[in-house]
């Protein structure tokens, strides 16, 4: 049957004359369904092919009719067992119809999703063949296996060619399994690139600059060479063919600007491993830029002079020494940053890990989240430390102005000269042997200060404990007060002079004690 008219004629013949009205209602429903399907672009033959046979529909109708008659009968003419059997069979058929309807609705959706996935892997294969000259292992396996599933879903719409479709499905499935086995045995499921080595030389040392952006794991080192040589860059490791071509066709006069192993959705099944990059910088050369943006790696940077020093690293460790720059920016999400004996105005942002800066000249700003910051032997106009929950330690430093703030971490400042401001919300503040104007402010955490020398200071806390230890040989007037807490002040009777310390807590305890060796 290819038309609805033929279908309805056979359906009408299956109904008794007295049930013609019920047939007409069913006929109207089927014609409405046909109209909707035609509007959606389906053919009449396709709609009719998906309908149950006229005999099945008529049988279902009379089974329901028999059940109603048996249930509503005034006498027990029909045995209970027959009623139960009819009821069970009717429920089974109804469930089958529901399942068939669900399959009819979900099958196109499943087919669409499979076709989308197949298209993605097919594009992946073509793109890798074109750009990398490599046949993608895992995407090829997925394409073959998905083809087998797609054929199985399509065969319900092609009854005449059901056997051919089953044959094609079996072939693609076997090919998929065979391809998986071959690529596994040859270790080619993932694309690993090609082993490659290249040294790139710049034409001049004047206004030379280096910029490298990589999403792969990379080990980077700098080497100072003779002033007679030209700046150069060496790359070594496994690289994608497209990256190799990018390196080979690049122009390098005074600038190296490379983006390697750029991560995208079509590199999901690419794994090139760790590569090595070395920068050779002639002694006395001042670079315009030294910029590294890496996803993962370890950096050892020595003896660099540059106008701009920029490092952006998600994970890995940085060790830098003897870096001279006008401006420096270092950002590390997960890893340690160590900078020694350098001169620059430096901004550091660290999510976690350890930041160690020693022997540096220049302004410093550190933004930390959970890590540890250790700062020693700094000479700076301004130092700004901002940590949320980590620990900051500043020692043996000279600065005109220090501002250290934290949310619930620790702020520890020792043997530092300058105008010092330290604040915290719930954490701990420790000041030891500092010189200059000292200001400490806390909400609920403890404040501890240890002083040998005289100092001007203001200390305040809302509910935290305050403890001040002062060398009695360097006695100063200390004004201490608390509204509801306990107070002890061993220096209350010292007359006011050049140096004054004011300590105030709203509800916490205050103890001003003589320091005992």
TrEMBL record:
<feature type="transmembrane region" description="Helical">
    <location>
        <begin position="165"/>
        <end position="185"/>
    </location>
</feature>
<dbReference type="InterPro" id="IPR025164">
    <property type="entry name" value="Toastrack_DUF4097"/>
</dbReference>
<feature type="domain" description="DUF4097">
    <location>
        <begin position="216"/>
        <end position="368"/>
    </location>
</feature>
<keyword id="KW-1133">Transmembrane helix</keyword>
<keyword id="KW-0812">Transmembrane</keyword>
<dbReference type="Pfam" id="PF13349">
    <property type="entry name" value="DUF4097"/>
</dbReference>
<feature type="transmembrane region" description="Helical">
    <location>
        <begin position="105"/>
        <end position="126"/>
    </location>
</feature>
<feature type="transmembrane region" description="Helical">
    <location>
        <begin position="138"/>
        <end position="158"/>
    </location>
</feature>
<protein>
    <recommendedName>
        <fullName>DUF4097 domain-containing protein</fullName>
    </recommendedName>
</protein>
<feature type="coiled-coil region">
    <location>
        <begin position="13"/>
        <end position="40"/>
    </location>
</feature>
<keyword id="KW-0472">Membrane</keyword>
<keyword id="KW-0175">Coiled coil</keyword>
